[in-house]
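Shipment paperwork, digital attachment
Item: protein structure file
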Amino acid sequence: MTSADLVLPPTDQQTPPAVVLQAPGDQTLDLALSDMQLLLDQHGYVIAVYPANIAPAHERRLHTIRSVLESDRIALLKVDLPPLAVGVLVRQLRQLSICDFSAGVVASAARLLTHYIHAGALLNSVTKLDRVPVSLKTHARSWVPGSQFAVLANPRPQLIKVGTGELAGPDFATRLLVARGQLQSDWVTETIAPAWQVQAVHEAALPADSPGWWGTGKMIEFAAFLPDISVVYQLVSSVRREVCTWCGNELLGDRCGLCSVPLRTQENQRHTSGVLTRGTAVRQGG
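Attachment content:
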């Protein structure tokens, strides 16, 4: 990870910790290279997940480290998710890292698991929101005192004025993680949680980047996610694995998670043999 506040506490005693890769202003390049080499020596592979809105200098540092070490054992995964959802994804990858998956499969699983995270926020204003399409009419409503807006950024963007519609939720069993900003409201826990039939609601600290991501500090961020690692494991297992023709690592989907090389055209096929239903993962034949 590239920020300590995106490292969520483990849900069990088996979940391994995450390592924070420091920004250039906090660590010299020599120390960063030494730390990365130590991680490679200890673990064999490093999967570095960072948000799409990371500072350009920090992203360049990550690519510099990978280039200098000339290592295909370092995966750089740029994730376009809200901050709280990034933390959820990283925690799931930490759980998968101790399963019987190769590093290439774990790295590739990030793209797959992103589709099963429902990430949104309750906002008092959308005037500065640029992550989700906002109509002129909605912008105008945002100036009305007392207005609140529910926004879903992933897996499909959606925006409603509270009281005039519903956010599309998951059709499978989830838990809901809630991080409160400066907005005082119980709408997320009293409306979203029952409507989405979540199994439980957990509180988390609001990531420092959340107000900037959502365009306001008067907000409550939330993310619904698959809570059962056995379901996540079955989901990942249900996807056909390929072998990267460049680095030789296993991968899921159409691009290697470690070296980022896409599959050749004739190989570029996604084979998913499992689908999720509420409460379980069902394996399909064929």
